[in-house]
Prior knowledge:
It contains no helices and 32 strands. With 390 residues, it is an all-beta fold.
Amino acid sequence: MSALRTGGAPRAVRRSGFTIAADGSYAACLAEIAGPDGSAGPGGGGLLAERWTLAGPEPYAVPLPGPQPEEPGTQVLALADGRVLIRRRVAADRHSLSLLSPTGPGTGELPLGTLAGDVRLLPPAPGAAYALAWEEDADRTGIWRVHGTPDGVPELAMTVPGRCTGGVWLDRVGRLLAVDRELDGRTKAVAVDLHTARTSPLLQLTDDSDDRLLLAEPDSGLLLLRSDATGEARLGWGVLGSRRPVRFPDALRVPGVLLTPVAAQPGQILMPEASVVALRAEVPGGAESLALWRPGERRLHWRASPPGWLGAAGMWMPGDELRLPYAADGLPCGLAAYDPPAGWPEPAARAATGVVVHVPARLPAPLPATRRKWNVLPLQQAPLAAAKAG
């Protein structure tokens, strides 16, 4: 584990909303500061933005206090240039956007503008930042480029009918985005091309299912999703640009445990079964562990999570180990590193048990390349009952 130095900064007792820049160089979160008596809560020091530097030999944290404590619900996003994008609610349906940066003992702030509606920042993209803004009256969602625009102010990229939530990048260049769209009482993941402003179906397992995308690994095309197409909400996996069916492996169905995908191993070109997925495992009461899983295997590899793991946050950069941020009260903060489990391939690995949802083939719409060319596969109208995999 690599420890994070905080120097004489105010002591943070809790952190939330941890985000990592697209290139892994910086991170940001909201930190709850202890009061004079060391307590948090109403008598504490309130919330402030905090930036972590991850690219150096030793991680380092810098507090970014504003003129007043931040409100709960504020969002921060780490950018590759070292600044932190912050979204604050300033009215019932209006949000302000600013860039924060350390300036000596204080915090520099550059206002970018405001957005109306229900606004949420999307995960970081290379060279830009985006937000979703849902307009309730019109029931549509605007996808706004809020950083990296020519004029330095938010710019509408496109609109999508319905209410969009989530947000997963399907490539490494910040062009192809998957969002979970709620329309006509159902939630389905759709893919949007921010260059052409076109929307394509992505997950439509059955007419009556809610199908949400949780994670994508662009090198292998691996997709992790949660759907109730089998009759209950389960984790499943598929491959972007493939006509292979979506599978719901038994290994990802652990009674009493909530599994949340965190990161996937990059660099497994054309081999989604070999890409290791890191999952946060939580049980009622707050206990947590790390589970590592390959789609081609039939079991989970359990690891102890670092003390004070900051939610379902982690990064897995090309050529590097899995790294999980942690910050426990009374312990140094930092990144815990994990190697992928050994033993791949196993002779019987590809016969993993679980449920298969078969999908009819359709002509996919072409999408641009990252390391290989991907097509959107609209998984629709599974005509066959879910079957046991062999």
